[in-house]
Amino acid sequence: MRIHHILYTAILTAGSFLITLGAAAQERKGPPRGGGGHSPVQTKTLEEVGGYKIGDVATDFKLKNVDGNMFSLSDIEKAKGYIVVFTCNECPFAKMYEDRLIALHNEYAPKGYSVIAINPNVSDSNTREGFKAMQKRAEEKEFPFVYLADEGQKIAPQYGALRTPHVFLLDHERKVQYIGTIDDNARSAENVKVKYVVNAIESLENDEKPNPNFTKAIGCQVKIARN
Amino acid sequence: MKLQKCIFLLAVCLLPLCYGFITVNPEKESSHLSRNQEIPVYNFESLKPLLYTNSDKVHIVNFWAMWCAPCVKELPILKQYEANNPNVEILLVSLDFPENIDSTLKPFLKKKGITSEVVLLDDPDANSWIDKIDPKWSGAIPFTIIFNNENRSYHERAFENIEDLENEIKKTIKNK
């Protein structure tokens, strides 16, 4: 009996010892480098393209929808606001948000806030972002919202769309009230902690200013044609 | 009978211990030979120290992903610069997803012949850390930091060619 106990203790000790060793082996050595004196030099950024700031009145437009008809914001009757989102077919981040955009539209369009999706990367030379591919994607996913082709990139630079997906929430006067990302977790809808766009809409509904009104996210670059 | 059982248990527990000893050492020795065999996954806080240096060597940190076409197009430019300047420290921060490391990222790097150090940044709430890297960064990639212990510049664009990159390095690192 006593031998049993001693051996058992020995096993436990050995076990914890090897666990420690294992952990040490797993640990990655992130070179501990200290900071230093820095003199930041900022080179040209895409922000210099310009774009809207909070409070600016956003332009309406006339763009071709996947159903073949031209579409303008003014076509939406009794709109209380507009969820304008620059997105595209191929970007994995855009794809990860498709279902959430559908849910957003289904919940808020009846309340006066429709999703208006615009593809700034539509291109004849890239078939995967071409108009036909947009039609196909809209059909596959049964988009309940319009999906517009920003041919010749006339609208994205005016708004200042830098990446996909990039949301511009406008109020009923088309004043920009929120710019940024949909929520705080692109990869996993389940693990979202903050729903930025939903919160911003709720703020507008309560006659409050969205806070935050500007967020950033990793996304695919909107390919601004360089002239 | 009980004693035998215990000895057996002890042996079972000690087996992984031996395994640990066997695997730990070779990994340490070969880490220089095959750097991109293992791709560590960082969150922003653990990545942060890699964005600064006490050395006067040229450091380039490039944020990229396999799904980002301009990033992929830019990789050979960084590769060529590294080949021409073995003294440069290049770190490729991949924003791909951790579950793709073995299935696609490693084969991709092998196919492209990328031997630079690669780490993967997995920190979903990008809004919380983008500004900490550079307040002017929108979050679009590719995004590159050129720095040493004294100078630093940020580039939210792809370099067009090797001359373009060399030019930006010259402009940034004043005494080179």
Q: What is the H/E string of chain A?
A: HEEEEHEHEHEEEHE
Strand line-up of the largest beta sheet of chain A: 3-2-6-5-4-8-9
Strand % of chain B is 15-25%
- Our measurement of the CA-to-CA distance between the termini of chain B, rounded to an integer number of angstroms, reads 75 Å
Structure description:
The complex is a heterodimer of chains A (227) and B (176). Chain A is built from five helices and ten strands, in the order H-E-E-E-E-H-E-H-E-H-E-E-E-H-E. Chain A has 227 residues and is α+β, with helices and mostly antiparallel strands. Chain A has one domain: Glutaredoxin (3-Layer(aba) Sandwich). In chain A, a hairpin with a 4-residue loop joins strand 2 and strand 3. The longest helix of chain A has 25 residues. Chain A is globular. In chain A, 34% of the residues are buried. About 15% of the residues of chain A have low confidence. Chain B has six helices and seven strands, in the order H-E-H-E-H-E-H-E-H-E-E-E-H. In chain B, strand 3, helix 4 and strand 4 form a beta-alpha-beta unit. Chain B folds into two domains: 30 residues; 138 residues, Glutaredoxin (3-Layer(aba) Sandwich). Chain B has a six-stranded mixed β-sheet with strand order 1-4-3-2-6-7. With 176 residues, chain B is an alpha/beta fold. About 12% of the residues of chain B have low confidence. At the A-B interface, helix 1, strand 1 and strand 10 of A face helix 1, strand 5, strand 7 and helix 6 of B. Strand 1 of chain A pairs parallel with strand 7 of chain B. Chain B: It comes from Arenibacter aquaticus.
